[in-house]
Specification:
single chain, 197 residues, alpha/beta, seven-stranded mixed β-sheet
Length: 197
């Protein structure tokens, strides 16, 4: 359980038998089943060829296609997500992908009389936030720190720190701050039990 070794090494330490010590260990035991489930999900995908950093957190993922096409960086949280792995999906570090997101790397050429299959990779840069029920279409690059609003359908590249929403996704006037220093995995209850207590 590689992710567990990171949490154990970086755990919050309190004086033995103190209230904080007992409370922290109670939380750790209570949330251990979820921690084990997430580690098993990551391990299963890695065994099938995916390249996932041991510090990434994987929810209930449906991954159709070649698992070797999936790459996920450190401190990235993936919720209940569906990946169509006809081509590469590369997700950077400190990315948050909420539940219900669908990544599509292939479609059909509507101008081709034979309706041929066309595919293209998806790239998600560091610190991007992909909100609930978004759809990311083939060939899209989501820039560093960019935000894709809930339910957005993204068919074009999103620039660094841009915020997009809607169907089709449109750039909003405000940009996100460029100073980003968070770890989305640290917000998960099982991880907070170790890192914070």
């Amino acid at each position: 359980m590689a992710g567990f070794s990171y949490l154990f090494k970086n755990r919050a330490v309190f004086p033995f038998a103190s209230y904080a010590h007992i409370k922290a260990w109670a939380k750790r035991f209570q949330t251990l089943p979820e921690l084990i489930r997430r580690n098993r999900r990551r391990s299963r995908l890695v065994k099938k060829g995916a390249c996932i950093d041991e510090r990434a957190e994987i929810g209930q993922v449906k991954a159709g296609g070649n698992k070797k096409n999936l790459k996920i960086g450190a401190y990235t949280f993936i919720g209940q997500v569906e990946f169509a792995l006809h081509d590469q999906i590369v997700i950077g570090e400190n990315v948050c992908v909420n539940d219900g997101v669908l990544f599509l790397t292939a479609s059909h050429d509507l101008k081709d009389p034979e309706w041929k299959h066309v595919k293209s990779p998806i790239i998600i840069e560091d610190y991007a936030w992909i909100c609930t029920n978004s759809i990311i279409l083939p060939g899209v690059r989501i820039g560093r720190g960019a935000v894709v609003g809930a339910g957005a359908v993204v068919s074009k590249n999103v620039g660094d720190y841009e915020i997009v929403a809607g169907n089709p996704a449109q750039v909003l006037t405000k940009k996100r701050t460029e100073k980003l220093e968070y770890n989305p995995c640290s917000f998960l209850a099982a991880n907070r039990a170790w890192l914070v207590g």
